[in-house]
Amino acid sequence: MPRTLTEVFAQARQENRSALIGYMPAGFPSVKGSIELVNALADAGVDIVEVGFPYSDPVMDGPVIQQASQRALDNGFTASQLFDVIEKSKASTVTMTYWNPIERMGIENFLTQLRAAGGVGVITPDLTIDESDEWISQTSEMAIDRIYVVAPSTSDERLKKVANATSGFIYAASLMGVTGTRSALSGSARELVSRVRKVTSLPIAVGLGVSNAEQAREIASFADGVIVGSAFIKLVLESPNEKEAVEKVRVLAAELAQAVRQPRS
Amino acid sequence: MRSVNLRNSRIENRKYAMKMSESIDGHFGRFGGRFVPEALVGALDELAAAHQAAMHDPNFQMELAELHRTYTGRPSIITDAPRFAAYAGNARILLKREDLNHTGSHKINNVLGQALLTKKMGKKRIIAETGAGQHGVASATAAALLGLECVVYMGEEDTKRQSLNVARMKILGAEVIPVTTGSKTLKDAINEAMRDWVTNVATTHYLLGTVAGPHPFPTMVRDFHRIIGVEARAQVLELTGRLPDAVLACVGGGSNAIGIFHPFIDDLSVRLIGLEAGGRGVSTGEHAATIVGGTPGVLHGARTFVLQDESGQTVESHSISAGLDYPGVGPEHAYLHEIGRAEYRAITDDEAMEAFSLLSRTEGIIPAIETAHALAGAMQVGKELGEKAILLINLSGRGDKDVQTAAQYFGIPL
Ligand SMILES: Cc1ncc(COP(=O)(O)O)c(C=O)c1O
Question: CA–CA separation, B243 vs B233, rounded Å?
Fold first, then answer.
């Protein structure tokens, strides 16, 4: 049985560190390749793997994840491949997906297959809490964590409502924008985390634009989790073959895993 | 039995109009709503509040009406089309001339409304998506008029099909960004505009060009286009002494159609008929007939009908007309279809081009190819209803922008 998100964050807290969360789309660069990449992340010390469900219209994603998703779709990606990757993942695994694929499969069908594959949570970047009634009742019934994304523009009042609907951890977007590496960390992340702290005791993980150890270290000093996606995918896109891609991803993951383990002040 | 049913559904529909005008959360039955990144919720709330306030603000209404009178050229006229009618079962064909609006289509109605709202919200930059380029041109025009910065996202494929409109936007001072992702058409331009908006929402208004998208867009854009139907209903009554038997409009996202349909929804004797782009034929899979050939799903922020595959991936649409080449449709149309108040049919590329040519030759009006789909629908419905029928057709735009496509289609050397 994979560890639940609550268990993963509890352990990280016990070790006085942040958890590291790494993102990879399923089926990119191939199904086999994405399984190897996901497990390279796990082996290098990533605590939670986020497996992306490639989608034709990823409005929350920048060029890097768009390109990776498109590659997976061009290769004939199907939902069963997503569950295959999740099943073979060694780490605790959540999936990140736009809403329409879930709606098309049917919530119950999707959650049943996710649970059978060992998935523990779902991040839904374009599902608002206002459209979530059925999602909340079914995920609760199936004991799958519901992770919502909050942004610097989210009002305090709304933060409270979103936090109430969330389980596992809250995904705090570090800035206003789409996924992709950024050279400098936005100042808004720290402020958002402190606003979220005021309304919930759930763990808070920060993502969007985090690409190197220095940024990870900084975020780890005030957040419970550090989420990295595009930086890994960029390495894969730049690699001539899957073997080299896996190696490069392993190296960066290890660096980041060390960064989140820096003693906190 | 039938009359009892009719009476019941009349009551239902009266309730519909009331319920929908009060539907401030943006749901149309199970359709509509908001499926967006949390980052946009604040901006959508702000916009919804600004829209509601504007609808009840006599000053805003006067300002907009004055712009329409002195700039758009409203009210647009109604033209009887007797020579074209010969190809439509000799039914009486009345054309609501949105093609005569400034910038050449209905799009300006919505654009001026939203551009005024942008100013009220204190934002200085607008972004827009465009397919045929008509909405982009209208947006660039309003930006020039009101002193706003304007960026237009347009699929690379469409910048080629509609190169004249690209030049028009640039002349008007807008920046046009070709979108090279996905199918390189309207749906991808919307994706890119959403990404821009998520990033720049504090300073920027997304001036969406149709009745799709998250709440409040479907309601707000409809409200700005209702003037088409409000004028046309009064004009037809005055001209003919009665209501039309059917109102027809082409449906891409559905803005010109909802604009002319909406004031007729409670007139149950009036059939509302939307014509979607059937492309090479719905059975070939190469079409953009979202209601006729699609399934319920979520696209671009709303639950509606979508062209999608088994696993929920959006399928690329096809139409000879860039403005109808979209795999989604406004959620209110999905609802009108579901409750049976409006009917939707698919018109193929060839049928549309035949109607395009016919209207040009019989009436001296070159319609937009989008609009030609509505005219082809009128040819069918006119034959079905016969010469006593009165059909009101939304002539949503003029065909100047389509001369190149049409020349190619008909083999006219350029
Ligand atoms: C003349 C004209 N008619 C119709 C449309 C389709 O849009 P909608 O369905 O929103 O009216 C367009 C879109 O570009 C257009 O230019």
Answer: 7
